[in-house]
Amino acid sequence: MSEQVKKPVGIMETVLRDAHQSLIATRMPTDMMLPIVEKMDKVGYHAVECWGGATFDASLRFLKEDPWERLRKLRDGFKNTKLQMLFRGQNILGYRPYADDVVENFVEKSVANGIDIIRIFDCLNDLRNLQATVDATNKIKAREGRGHAQIALSYTLGDAYTLEYWVNMAKKIEEMGADSICIKDMAGLLVPYKAAELIKAMKEATKLPIQLHTHYTSGVASMTYLKAVEAGVDVIDCAISPFALGTSQPATEVMVETFKGTPYDTGYDQNVLAEIADYFRPYRDECLASGLLNPKVMGVDIKTLLYQVPGGMLSNMVSQLKEQNAEDRYYDVLKEIPEVRKDLGEPPLVTPSSQIVGTQAVFNVLMGERYKMATKETKAVLRGEYGQTVKPMSQEVIDKVIPGEERITCRPADLIENEMDKLEAEMKEWKQQDEDVLSYALFPQVATDFFKYRQAQQEKVDMTQADTKNAAYPV
Ligand SMILES: [Mn+2]
């Protein structure tokens, strides 16, 4: 590119979603967010990610907040900035596949309450699991002129994941009617020169804008962004410095400064960014002091690159081994993880496939025989209930774990009947807004507990008398 041609890179700010999900278990309350919204709205971010992922679950479960209410308040404050959410394809924001009517309804309500851009991913990169969400978004776009469907490819390494694989996926995404593509590198596996190669090849294959999402876990992320931007990536995901680095994203201010005076100059005002950082810094200190932010997650974890296992999955595995008094088997399990992943068709390791592969690897090692016991989820993956994997699954393992059982090859949601009416009937005594049905659909127990809490609050129950531990609120 000649020095004269300007191509400012966009930044999506993640502090209101992924940054606090990655560093402080998604515990930032709405009250912490609202006072800084007006300032954040002045930056000119490409978008602010503020919803979806674990924020929905954590709001209801731990913060006793209505996530829909949070979204409406943020929408009120952000007058000029696009709001983005993360959506797990057919699993929406939950952990099981839902019928298409729930997916469509959720997309409708997300946009109606303030979301502009929906980033949709599938843990197997099975694009069929993303079509219903893309279609629902496009329907709104045709009707109202707003709504943007971004398909995210879960980035991973392995024999099947060649440059051709990613390029073909980019072409298919364009055909599906998505508005943009994201490369979602949840474990920080994408190294700088590979990123340049990947972005260049994908930009040649598609006209769609490409956004890059990574985590600082392995320590290479800001260099990866530099090479990706030089190769033509359109948007990068960053977090304001007090909630950047470690298991979070590269720091916004650092990337802004890096590209200053180059064709990629963001044009953002460092003074405004500094004020935003000043606002969040005392909260970071508070999180450190309370232990909510563990300094351990702020370092470089090079094991991520060595074993290609996301950090969260490693810590899960360690706690599972601890429970079984089998911490000495750590390295055996680490060796078993890629084997299980291969047996299951070499999927990316991202929620929920990461938990499925990790737990099965622990079982295989501790039982002394591979697949002597298989989890419910491993069986479901082998039956095809999560979708199609990039490589075939091991026939030997299929024969051992689900002998003689029927396997499905269709889009899994084709077998799920519409369920909105049934869900609404189940929860109608608590319904105060249409969105409540969707909260209930995703987390039936947690949402019901929240509805009880909400009702108790509205009826001015003395909360000191409420048995919050057992979610019992005297009404
Ligand atoms: Mn992420």
Layout of SSEs?
Blueprint: E1 10-13, H1 18-24, H2 30-40, E2 47-52, H3 55-63, H4 67-77, E3 83-87, H5 100-112, E4 117-121, H6 128-144, E5 148-154, H7 163-176, E6 180-185, H8 192-205, E7 210-214, H9 221-230, E8 235-238, H10 252-259, H11 270-290, H12 303-307, H13 311-323, H14 330-343, H15 353-366, H16 376-383, H17 395-401, H18 420-427, H19 435-442, H20 444-458
Bound molecules: manganese (II) ion.
Residues 18, 186, 213, 215 line the site of manganese (II) ion (MN).
What does this molecule look like?
With 475 residues, the protein is an alpha/beta fold. It contains 20 helices and 8 strands. The protein has helices at 18-24, 30-40, 55-63, 67-77, 100-112, 128-144, 163-176, 192-205, 221-230, 252-259, 270-290, 303-307, 311-323, 330-343, 353-366, 376-383, 395-401, 420-427, 435-442, 444-458; strands at residues 10-13, 47-52, 83-87, 117-121, 148-154, 180-185, 210-214, 235-238. An 8-stranded parallel β-barrel has the order 1-2-3-4-5-6-7-8, surrounded by 5 helices. The longest helix has 21 residues, at 270-290. The model has no long low-confidence stretch (mean pLDDT 94). The site of manganese (II) ion has 4 residues, from loops.
Short characterization:
This protein has 475 residues and is of the alpha/beta class.
Features:
eight-stranded parallel β-barrel; binds manganese (II) ion; globular; 20 helices; alpha/beta; 475 residues
Kindly report the spatial arrangement of strands forming the biggest sheet: 1-2-3-4-5-6-7-8
Radius of gyration: 22 Å
Helix/strand structural class: alpha/beta
Helix content: 40-55%
- Per DSSP, the total helix count is 20
Low-confidence stretches: none
DSSP strand count: 8
Morphology: globular
Sketch the major β-sheet: 8 strands, parallel, barrel
Termini Cα gap: 67 Å
Series of H and E elements:
EHHEHHEHEHEHEHEHEHHHHHHHHHHH
Bound molecules: manganese (II) ion
What is the strand content? 5-15%
